[in-house]
């Protein structure tokens, strides 16, 4: 196995340097395809002077519907979600592979990434401070979408002969539509979703992450790693392989340690920076609310701020994409709706907490010194906001970005694996081949800039939300029945509590 990995990596190392124009050639060939796919998936309509991608509207409308249909489960279910994650209702003999906390940590590690650091900075730059308000609103609504897709992920998962489980949108699409007499359509959209999540796992869940990790390290090193992308890529690929070769249990054991550490690490320093800008806090918060409804200086005014905020939230927490449902499907529970409750915490942590804190770091810095970032945008802008108060912070921030990228890769490796096994079967040899391919792409991501391929991958990940949200509409009544039944049994004590 290791020999095969070394052979594959050596092959790529041989062909890439030998063909200096390799990435340029690939980019030229794939650019027209990327342009076409992107124009279709991210087709925009003009709303009061602002450009609204239809795919974002599709996701947001779904989130509003599920919030109303389930009676604001994102509020009423929050306390119970905490109880489940603590293990209060965890039966160790339940079917599944990972605990509620491990499933949550794996799903959160798949969404918390570079976007939480750099994407928020871009959103605030384009949409103004008011975008933060709409980002929070979208995160709140997205909690309900996660509830639906993660409940269905467990309900329609498949138990494999070796004791492992496979679940996610491709399974609830196929089985759910089959129950409604739409067998052919269910098979088609399930297969389409599996292909999309597989390609997405190699692109935005892999090459983009490893590339950004290398860029961050090289920036902090002052360019000392120029030309050494192959070395960073090899090291990163080897570490990723060491984790993912053990499957979801190995991934969950790593994410349950990394996610709390990196979240606390990042939020702690962010709060310190915000407090050091204490004099600017009232004005920064006021700017968020006034900007949300006036959108001063923003293209499209308040609508422009709303669209940017919603778009950033959707891109960040992936509510409606269905990816997190794959990780949550592996949980040990006989009650599908319990994982719906747990998944409520995911957009809350990713968007409402981490993205908002990043926005406040930038917002308070802007109030104190409007020119603090110069021409910098994205991660560099966030880094400048930290550096303004803590001069040495870009170094640990780069370390944090590396952890974010690493955790995202190992989670997305599992999403891609489940897309692969859905298409090609659960045989161990096939799974090993997939893992080797995944790690080879980790190394490639550090060596070449395949922008158009990443664009295609990005577009496909958002394209699969179309059948996913459609399936959620069809299957929402089942989720509602599960929720009401569970609540009734919880009230009567039929659902046993193991910790008090």
From TrEMBL:
InterPro entries given in the database record: Na/Ala_symport
Gene3D superfamilies (UniProt xref): Amino acid/polyamine transporter I
Domain of life: Bacteria
Keyword terms, alphabetized: Cell inner membrane, Cell membrane, Membrane, Symport, Transmembrane, Transmembrane helix, Transport
Cellular localization per UniProt: Cell inner membrane; Cell membrane
Chief place of localization: membrane
Mode of membrane association: Multi-pass membrane protein
Transmembrane segments: 30-47, 54-72, 117-137, 188-208, 228-246, 258-279, 392-415, 436-454, 460-479
Family classification: Belongs to the alanine or glycine:cation symporter (AGCS) (TC 2.A.25) family.
Designated name of the protein: Alanine:cation symporter family protein
Organism, scientific name: Sneathiella marina
Classification lineage: Bacteria, Pseudomonadati, Pseudomonadota, Alphaproteobacteria, Sneathiellales
